[in-house]
Known about the structure:
The protein is mainly α. The protein has three helices and no strands. The radius of gyration is 13 Å and the shape is globular.
Amino acid sequence: RETTAVDELLYWIADDLARTTAWRRASASPAAATMAEAERLRLIAIPLWHSYMFAIRKDWGYLTSQATAEATRNNKEPVPHAV
């Protein structure tokens, strides 16, 4: 990603950290052992990711929610997650 806007750069950094943290927490949860990866992502990781972004800044939470909703609705690409 490229940007010259400091606010956008901070958003992408926060979003990457929130996504990574959400995926790791979702994978470590007791419920994760009973779920397929796609289900774990949809039911645990994405809601956590949104919550983290809303906690940082409300407008960033909306951006993340819109991006994941669009990606999952159009099925053009999987929702990114940390490995």
